[in-house]
Amino acid sequence: MKNFASWFVGKTGEDDKHRQLILDSSKSFRKRIGSLSYIMKLNEKHGLNPDKCPDFIKSNHIMLMDICIGFLRNDTTRTKGKAAWDEISSTLKILIDLTRYRYPAPIDTIQEIAIACLNENNRIELREIGFNLVLNLMNNDVNLEVLSVLFLSSIDLAQLVNEESKGKLHFMNKSSISSPPNSLDSNWVNLVRTAEKPGENVQTKSLGELEKVCGSLQKGAKDCIFFLNKALEYAIMFEGSTRVDQFRRWFIMLKQTILYLLYPGLCKCQGAMGHDWGFRDGLPPILHYVVVKWIIQIIKTPDLNPVLMDLNGEFEFVVNLIGESFKLTESYNLSCSESASACIRIYEEWMFQNCMTEEIKNNWSEVMSKLLEYPITLFDFSQDSSSRRVNLCKEFLKMLTDSKSNGFDRKILLVCALNLSIKTLETHDPNRSLQDIIDPISEFLISLLADSIELVQISWSDYTDILKNWSIKSEFIIQTWLEKMKPITSTLKERQFQQSDLLDGWLSMLQLLGDPLKFQEKVQIKWVQALHELLVMNVLIQPQISPPPNFMLDIFFITLSKLIRQGAKESQRLSLIILVTIFSNTKCREMPMQCYLQHLSLLLFLSGEKEYLWKEVLDAAPKVLEYPGMHFMIYNFLKIAKNARVHSLKFIFYIMCLPNYYGKTKLENTEGLDLTYDGLKPIIQEHLVKCVDESEIAVSALYGLTVFILEELDAGNDEISELVTHVIQNKCLSDNEDVAITALICLQALSLSFPNLSKSILDFLISKCLSDIPNSKEKVLKSVLNTIQNWLLVNNSVPCDSALLSNLFSKLSLKLSSIDSSNPLEAEISMLVSFISIYYLNFPFKGHNSTVFHSILSDEAFAENSTSRPLHYALGNSVIFTMIPHAEKAKFVLRNQFGRFCWEAFDFMVFEPSTNSEEVEKALSIMRDAKIELDIREPPPPLQDEPLLPKLIKFIADNYPECYVPEKPIEAGGEILKMIESVEKIESECHYEEKRVDRERPQFNMGRYFIANFGLIDKLVQLQPDEKFERGLGILDSLKPRESVKIGVIYVAPGQQEEKEILANSGGSLEFQEFLQNLGEVIELQDHQGNLGGLDPNGTAGKISVSYADWQYDVIFHIVPLMPTDPNDDQQVLKKRHVGNDIVHIVWSDHYRDYRQDTMLTHFNFVIIVIYPLSKGLFRIQIYRKTNSDYGPLQDGMVVPAHLLASLVRQTAIYANQQARLSKHPNWEKQTQIRRKQIQELIQRYPVQNPQKHLVYSSMF
């Protein structure tokens, strides 16, 4: 704005003033230099761009230089010190700026000034100015020999020659810059030498970062690197349209001069230098680092990149120069590492086709194949294996890994990986550990091979030769191999192991690491563990889609056999598991070849001689015995089982039903003994009895012994009952609570089969268990009470004698007196006493199915549509007594924790003494002896045939004095009034909130008589019925007294594997149908009054099902084939909705492969009991469980006959259901406990306030 104003008023602008002053030769050089400095500062932003040089400078270029030279020669002596340096340095910088433009200049004069500045005795700032002048002059004419000499002399490479190489290496003579200037014109030089040092040294700023890499440097070395850096930077700092051409010209000049001295093997020299000049034996790493940084900077500069990346030009030189970075010598330092690291980073750019010309991209594969040869030298560990080299190798491997992930050519990567692996293997000293790099190389190599299987042809032997040497000692390599094999194996499973390149690659990968027998012990174990995880946990765990046995055996049999015989102990164990799993989990229509079976039996026989393999041999036994012709191994397995009882049960469970099945058939064996199947019985029995004493397996052994007892009993062996009384019975007193509870459960399972033992078992439970088991063992005592209850009720046709019952009540009474009222046992004992008193000798009800456990009549239906409301009373704290209105009958509804019971009485005789029979008196005497307090009232004497009213009044006066008003003579009206008042007072006391219905009271007459006859008036407490109370009764009636259980039943047809196929079944085999009929009672849903488990009685869930009920459980089976199949629903949601919510599934599988636990996915299923039909009425049991709870009687691996199958499966399913509930809900309560609490809550919430005895009776009128 100021200049514009000056122009507007006709004045000259500031810039023009300075230009005029510069052109005025009459002015001093100092003033003209000052104005010139002003003008040049305005032009600083244009740098070295000749296209933007001002016209003033172009037209006066020579004159401006003369002004600078004249000032230096004439006016510099007028100032001293710092002022002299400022003026002189400013003038020299102007001269540098003027010489940058390629215009005519007094080269000789400027050359002299440059020489004066470059003198090695000058300060570095002045030498820098001289070097810049040389660079500018060379830019005008790079062929001037003097300038070339000055250039090379300034970059004194001899300063970096080590002591050993001095005199052997030749560089430019620096005499031209070593001697002081003789010309008087150079007095200005002397002035600046004496000036004060102006701030931080420019060299320090330039080399600060570099010294962090190479460490401290001597002055000469610093100067050399400083000027080399300046020269390289100068070559790329041009701007404008000629920038690329100028760089190309400078790069050629640098190759012929300084780069030749650095890399004589890569460049051609200029005429001034000899062919023996330069670093012939390798240049100092710091110089190479400087050059490499410069080269990489150019490669990343888009407009200059094509100059270096020209295949027919400088590309070969650049690649060779970068390749030098990977040649790390024994004495390399941090600068070497930094050079190599920088080159790896530019390689990474190239791998992703960055910083490349189109020409190179078109020849990319060929170029990259050549480029990747250079870094291989990094992996030469013959000289050293330092952490720096290792880290560089890791960096290069990471770059290769990243490029692999981004689709880099696998062929090129495979060749590179092979070459670097070979280099490492050849140069690595086996006596020195180098796992830090061997493991990453192996990881990359294995990963690359795994990912390239279907992409390129691989020469597997080349890579196996390498990896087999490294895997011997490395667990990491084994783990890497496993991780890469998993996805390949999963893909093969999906493709069902069909012949393909992937299968061939998988087989090659299995052999990639070499012979596992040559591995170190830890590594060998790791390899076998990896194979176990790969095959057993990934392939064979899903038998439906695993390959045929012979296919797997062809691949693994020899290797696994060798490991079983010669491997480490853990390797032998795991190898045996893998081999047996291949045999068993791949069972299908194709049997293993006989040669494999024979060899397997030999391996098992030999393995049986090794104690540490006994468990695996016995675990394998049941699986092996399923194959035809393998029973000759039974006796050998029994010998092993005798010495390894803890691991033997699964094998014993498999064979314990075979003696009765095969009978007197001869059992072949390897020892030539004359042995039959029937002869195995005592051996099995003895073994099971001994196993019961092994605490670790006692629970399973007890269940197994129970099944064995049932099997023997069915075979007619009556002596087997001794096992019940001598083994199982004694275990009920075990100190181990789990064992004691299991023994008691086994007794319950045996109760139906041994009615003749009822008395002795009950006597033992009452006399020993109740007496000897301390109260602290609450769970055991609860199980004892449950077992007593079971034996009393299931054998109700054989009544116990009075002494036994008397003893029971006595023991229970003692127990009650020894425990606190808050103890849960108190409720259990009370419940047992009440339950027995109701159901003993009455369950199931005569003429009724056990499904109906309590009355299903509503109060309204029972009252036969009477309009009167029933009366509700509390009888104690856990019974609600309801009187139903009826004119001719006494009707009552009794609600307690065991259910809802409707009673009616008619044609009974009031106070008939003969009703007190001998049987009743006997029962009452037993209870009296048991010290249970009962209020037993003798009936009054019978009435004589006399007028009824006087006798009735006398009866009331004798028996119910609280209701009697003495008879008085009526003498006057006042007495009558008093009697009326007395009656009204009684009526007012009997009044309560509910309106009295006087007209309907006769409907309770018969009920009143009945209650009075039983003496219950004093024990009833009237309840206030209202809407909430009635709603509470409805909730109570909906709570069933027995445990409601629902169990899913699934049928799997041959060949079915998927959930949708299985759910779509609408039928099953004949054996399955027979099993269903034996599982329970076939019921019609619409008529069934018991537990339906959510099944719709209207037919949407089918018309029929199977139900089972006893005194404790009400079970409904959700049978999938009996439910309607929706042809339009592949998921069969209706079926899945029921069976998917069941805790326990019973699966009948006619498929030739094992049922998969995850076949039917559900969040609620915890237990699966699978039944596999074997030959001629035998069935193998498989149990999957998600909890650690023990239950039985059936155990995983058992083989049972058809006649025991349904009952044992049902019992096991019920127990499993209860245990799963308890594990999921530890505070789970029985239905009887819930009903008891509900009744107590109703009684406590709705009593009549301030009850009196006579009010109860008056409420019935």
UniProtKB/TrEMBL annotation:
<dbReference type="GO" id="GO:0005737">
    <property type="term" value="C:cytoplasm"/>
</dbReference>
<dbReference type="Pfam" id="PF02145">
    <property type="entry name" value="Rap_GAP"/>
</dbReference>
<dbReference type="InterPro" id="IPR027107">
    <property type="entry name" value="Tuberin/Ral-act_asu"/>
</dbReference>
<dbReference type="InterPro" id="IPR035974">
    <property type="entry name" value="Rap/Ran-GAP_sf"/>
</dbReference>
<keyword id="KW-0343">GTPase activation</keyword>
<dbReference type="InterPro" id="IPR016024">
    <property type="entry name" value="ARM-type_fold"/>
</dbReference>
<dbReference type="GO" id="GO:0005096">
    <property type="term" value="F:GTPase activator activity"/>
</dbReference>
<dbReference type="InterPro" id="IPR000331">
    <property type="entry name" value="Rap/Ran_GAP_dom"/>
</dbReference>
<feature type="domain" description="Rap-GAP">
    <location>
        <begin position="1033"/>
        <end position="1242"/>
    </location>
</feature>
<dbReference type="GO" id="GO:0051056">
    <property type="term" value="P:regulation of small GTPase mediated signal transduction"/>
</dbReference>
<dbReference type="GO" id="GO:0005634">
    <property type="term" value="C:nucleus"/>
</dbReference>
<protein>
    <recommendedName>
        <fullName>Rap-GAP domain-containing protein</fullName>
    </recommendedName>
</protein>
